[in-house]
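User: Let's play a game. I give you a shape written as tokens, and you guess the letters that built it. Ready? Here's round one.
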């Protein structure tokens, strides 16, 4: 690991971090261990499927540090349209987040497999969902 000495002069006035880091900069200090998200995917209801659309819900919970990113694929192709991902919520140092993918009937029919993929702390996890699991 590379270490670098940094010398800081004492400051006798209030210094705003806004001016130090600039707008839009986020500083996250992680003093705890890394915990990967628990993941689950909830399928569309049969009522919704009969109505011409399909929504799947991907739930992430219990992870640390924050910063989990969610993406979806249908039939092997990444989907960005129809994705709504919540902000991260923190409770007792652990984070949770959800993402909903809503597809038209035509798009739902294009692929057998829908995948919720999560990138967290430079590691990827995914949960595949097969359409055949909810058709009968």
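Assistant: Ready! My guess for every position:
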């Amino acid at each position: 690991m590379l270490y670098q000495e940094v010398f800081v002069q004492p400051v006798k006035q209030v210094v705003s971090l806004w001016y130090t880091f600039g707008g839009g900069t986020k500083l996250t200090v992680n003093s705890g261990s890394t915990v990967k998200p628990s993941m689950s995917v909830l399928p569309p209801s049969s009522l919704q499927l009969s109505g011409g659309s399909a929504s799947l819900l991907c739930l992430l919970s219990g992870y640390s540090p924050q910063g989990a990113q969610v993406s979806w694929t249908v039939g092997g192709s990444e989907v960005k349209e129809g994705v709504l991902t919540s902000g991260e919520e923190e409770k007792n140092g652990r984070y949770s987040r959800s993402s909903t993918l809503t597809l038209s009937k035509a798009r739902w029919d294009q692929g057998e497999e829908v995948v919720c993929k999560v990138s967290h702390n430079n590691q990827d996890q995914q949960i595949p969902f097969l359409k055949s699991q909810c058709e009968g």
